[in-house]
Amino acid sequence: MEKVVFIANVDCGTGMSGGSTIYFELLKRFYDSFQLFFLGSHGTIKKLKQEKIKNITYIESDNNDSSNLYSIFGIFYHSVRRLLKGIQSIYKNSDIFDKVDYIYSASDFWPDIIPALLIKWRNPKVKWVTAFYFFAPKPWQRINPYASSLIRRIIGIFYWLTQLLAYILIRKWANLVIACNEIDRKIFIRDGFPEENIIAIYGGVDLDFINSVPTPKKQIYDAVFMARFHSQKGPIFAVKSWSEVIKTFPHAKLAMIGNGSEEAKIIHYIKKMNLTKNVSLLGFMDKHKKYKVLKSSKIFIHPAIYETGGMAAAEGMACGLPVVAFNQEGYKYCYPQGLLGVSPIGDHHKFAQAILELMIDNKKYVTMRKEAKELVTREWDWNKRASFILRKMQHA
Fold first, then answer.
1. pLDDT in tens, 11-50
2. Residues 255, 389 share a domain
3. Is 300 helix (H, G, I), strand (E, B) or coil?
C-alpha cells in the first residue's frame, strides 16, 4: 500500500478553517487507499483522534498550542516555532518520511511547505501535493482586511511576502496544487504552471452527515453567520446589517457561530446598539450542534469583504438556506445559484436590504432555498470531491 504523509504544522486544532476541513475530510476517505501518516501539533492530533480515522500514524511536531495568533508577536513566534519543529520532526523520523510516496501540505504557510520540500528534496520521486490558500491581498489594495491598524498592516505585509516566496517554491517543486478557487488557478496557469497539475477545489460538504441531523420542528433564528471572527470574514458587517434589519422586524434574531480576533469588537457593538436580545453569540461549534443551529435558521449571511470561494456558505446551502453575501468575483464560479449578491462590498445598508428582501418575498426565498440545496447536492458532496482529488494525485 502506498504511503502518504499529511503535514498540517500550522494548525493548532482550535476552530476549523476551510483548509483544515479539507484535509480532515480527505483523511476520512483516504484510509482504505493509503497508509496514512500525519505530522502536526498536539491539539490538531487530539482533534483528529476524536474522529477515529483508521490506518493513520500520528507524529507530533509540537506540544505547545498556546501561541497568541491575534498579536503580531504571537504570529511571528508561532510561525518560526512551527517551522523549526517541523524541520526537526522530518530529520527525527527520516526512516518514515524518506519512504513515503506522497506528501500533502495543508497550506501554503512556511511551517507546512518547508518540511514538505525537505522530504521532496531528500526523495525527488515523491509526489508533492499542496493546498494553496487564496492569494494574500497586496498591501496597496483598496479592499484589504489588514488595513484597520498599523499592526495589522505589518501582519498583512508579512503574510504577502512569505506567501510570495512560497508561491515561487510551489511552482517549481509541487506535482499537484489544490487551489481554493478558479481565479487563483488561472493565475498559476498564467505564470507557467502546467494546467493539468492544478485544480480548483472549494471544499465540500458531508451530505450524508448533514442529512442525518434532524430538522428542528421550529426555526429559531431568522439568519445565521458562521465564520472566523476576523475582519476578512466581515462579522462587524453582520451585526451592523442586523441593526438595520430590526428596524423593520424588531424581534428578528441572528445567530453567530465562530470566534476569533474580532470577538471583543463584536461584543462591544452589540452592547452599544442594544442588540443583546437580537444577536446570539454561540462560539465555535462543530458537527451536530452546528448543523442543528443552521437547520434552525432561515437565511445564511456571509458578509466577507475579501473572499474568493470558501465552504461555509455551502454548509448553509446544504441545510437548505439561501445565502446573502457581498458580490465577490469568485462566487460566480462556486455559487452560481442560491446566493444573493450585494454591491458595493462593505455597504451594510445594502446588505441589510438584501436580507429584508428574502425575509419579505417568500416566493423568492423558496426559489433560492431550492436552488441552494440543488447546487450542493450536485457539486459539493465530499465523497465526489475526495475521489476526484485521489485520481489527480495518482496521475500527477
1. 765 555 667 788 888 998 898 889 999 999 888 898 888 8
2. no
3. strand
Residue 166 to residues 20, 64, 110, Cα–Cα distance (Å):
19, 25, 7
Please state the pTM of the whole predicted model.
0.74
Sequence-ordered list of residues with C-beta below 8 angstroms from that of 361, at least 6 positions apart, any chain: none
- CATH number for the domain spanning 321: value is 3.40.50.2000
The answer to whether the CB of 339 falls within 8 A of the CB of 321 is no
- Do 168 and 236 lie in one domain? The reply is no
The whole-number average pLDDT for the span 258-269 is 94
Q: Are residues 193 and 234 in the same domain?
A: no
Distance between terminal CA atoms of the chain? Answer: 18
Quick one: pLDDT at residue 173? 96
Whether residue 119 sits in one domain with residue 223 = no
The string of pLDDT tens digits covering residues 73-122 is 667 787 888 999 999 999 999 999 999 999 999 999 999 999 999 999 99
Structural domains counted in the chain: 2
Query: Can you give the residue range of the structural domain that contains 99?
Result: 3-204+381-394
Residue 66 clears pLDDT 70, i.e. is over it: no
